[in-house]
Write a structure and sequence with these properties.
- The protein is an alpha/beta fold.
- It has helices spanning 3-6, 30-39, 57-70, 89-107, 115-133, 159-175, 197-207, 226-233, 235-238, 252-266, 278-288, 292-305, 317-333, 339-351, 356-363, 367-379, 398-410; strands at 46-51, 81-82, 182-187, 216-222, 243-247, 353-354, 383-388, 391-396.
- It folds into three domains: 3-14 and 250-333, no CATH class; 39-247, Rossmann fold (3-Layer(aba) Sandwich); 339-410, Winged helix-like DNA-binding domain superfamily/Winged helix DNA-binding domain (Arc Repressor Mutant, subunit A), CATH 1.10.10.10.
- The chain is built from 17 helices and eight strands.
- The strands form two sheets. The protein has a five-stranded parallel sheet with strand order 2-3-4-1-5. Strands 6-8-7 form a three-stranded antiparallel sheet.
- Helix 4 crosses helix 5 (115-133), helix 11 packs across helix 12 (292-305) and helix 13 (317-333) packs across helix 17.
- The two termini are 33 Å apart.
- The chain binds adenosine-5'-triphosphate and magnesium ion (MG).
Length: 411
């Protein structure tokens, strides 16, 4: 798509999280920022950041991290450590150490003369080679060790040794002028989607003592449920959590500010006008429940689909609604849903959330039949389930929910 034609440097709504370069685009969450920034004035803290997928949890953590680095409170590796499903404690620590090593060297090449750095770098280099020869890439941050959770990982170096290196790097960061040492961001702490409960409980229990190493602080970032999981399943970790923040979707007001800021930031020509109006942006906000990643992705697909600039110059509300409706329908079509499954989606959309008994009552079908349909929908990732005591509560996944809500807009 030719953005210059519309008067923009490039697509103003890239789905990339806020980075050091785009900090000024960060909008909203004032209270949460304030709270976390207070906490980050202390040394050795552990902050849990939790929010629904796509609302901006990574960007929030990035914002904290980079602002703290600007103020020389922390050295904060720009790339987060994306914790994968099959990591053990040693691979987590190794990834963290190599992440720090990379950042330190990127900031100041002269760091190489320090003994602690040299040793940590040599170690991470050695481990990286060993992991690679095992056919798994340990240090592609954000990457994965491979799809299979059964890949067994070699334990080359005991975790205590890795802990010593981490401690040394923390001290080194302080001598380099970062008052509170290092701030590490662990991302991807998503239950069910990425990690099983057992795995995350193991990892957190094992990492607890390492989370308490002097001059190293931690941002633990994950999906909804992370805080309560830690509180109920990993109480040893819960005891040492400094603060927990919940990232809600931006208010409509802040959302409008975010859009205006982005358009102004990427605009080349003052007169340029973005092909979507506020009504369309509001519609997207409503159907996605304010999840920015989905909104930005939908805007992109919609503009491409409509061949904006070639066929159409401006997208009206009706055209936007129909296009989104088609896009979502195409996505759902991949799941080859049956009429019975679609009915369940409709019912769950109406009810918001429900257990088997409630769905059975509403649909006037027996529970065994409903359970069978639900397990099919679970497999197709159209619904998700949470446990509340003995109760299993079902809800629509976002794709299905958007389809439901778009339909509601059509009637
Ligand atoms: N507070 C904010 N101000 C401005 N832009 C934001 C803000 N939060 C998020 N964004 C933008 O929204 C998009 C999604 O943000 P981000 O990747 O941080 O979400 P996320 O919750 O981490 O998503 P996921 O759950 O998929 O990892 C990105 O394009 C990001 O730049
Ligand atoms: Mg994220």
């Amino acid at each position: 798509m030719d953005w210059a034609f519309f008067g923009y440097k490039h697509y103003p709504f890239s789905v990339n999280p806020i980075t050091m370069k785009t900090l000024e685009l960060f909008t909203g969450h004032d209270e949460e920022v304030q709270l976390c920034q207070n906490v980050l004035h202390d040394n050795n803290v552990r902050l849990v950041v939790e929010g629904a997928r796509g609302v901006g949890t990574t960007s929030f953590a990035n914002y904290l991290k980079f602002r703290a680095q600007e103020k020389k409170l922390y050295l904060a590796p720009r790339v987060e450590v994306s914790v994968e499903a099959n990591w053990n404690l040693e691979s987590l620590l190794t990834a963290v150490i190599s992440n720090i090593v990379r950042e330190m060297e990127a900031i100041d090449g002269k760091i190489i003369k320090h003994k602690a750095f040299k040793e940590a770098k040599a170690l991470s280099g050695r481990l990286s080679e060993a992991y690679n020869s095992f056919g798994i890439s340990a240090f592609s941050m954000g990457g994965s060790y491979g799809k299979s959770a059964t890949v067994s990982q070699p334990s080359f170096i005991p975790s205590t040794t890795l802990g010593h290196h981490l401690r040394d790097l923390g001290e080194l960061a302080v001598t380099q002028g970062y008052k509170n040492g290092i701030l590490i961001q662990l991302n991807n702490l998503d239950l069910n989607v990425i990690h099983s409960h057992e795995h995350l409980a193991y990892l957190f229990n094992a990492a607890r003592d390492f989370f308490q190493i002097e001059n190293v602080s931690w941002l633990l970032v994950g999906d909804i449920g992370l805080t309560s999981f830690i509180a109920t399943k990993v109480d040893r970790l819960d005891d040492i959590i400094s603060e927990r923040v919940f990232i809600s979707p931006l208010s409509k007001d802040d959302y409008h500010k975010l859009i205006a800021k982005r358009l102004a930031y990427y605009r080349i020509d003052k007169k340029s006008k973005f092909p979507l109006g506020e009504d369309v942006f509001d519609f997207l906000y409503d159907i996605t429940e304010g999840r920015l990643r989905y909104i930005f992705a939908l805007v992109y697909s919609m503009l491409n689909r409509l061949q904006i600039g070639k066929l159409v110059q401006n997208v009206s509300f009706d055209l936007a609604r129909d296009t989104v409706s088609n896009l979502v329908r195409e996505r759902l079509a991949k799941f080859s849903l049956t009429k019975a499954e679609l009915d369940i989606i409709q019912i769950l959309g109406d009810l918001g959330q429900a257990n088997v008994a409630e769905i059975s009552e509403t649909s006037e079908k027996n529970r065994t039949y409903i359970s069978k349909l639900l397990s099919g929908l679970l497999q197709k990732k159209c619904v998700n389930v949470t446990k509340d005591g003995n109760q299993r509560i079902y809800q629509l996944e976002l794709d299905a929910k958007i389809a439901y809500l778009v339909d509601a807009y059509n009637t």
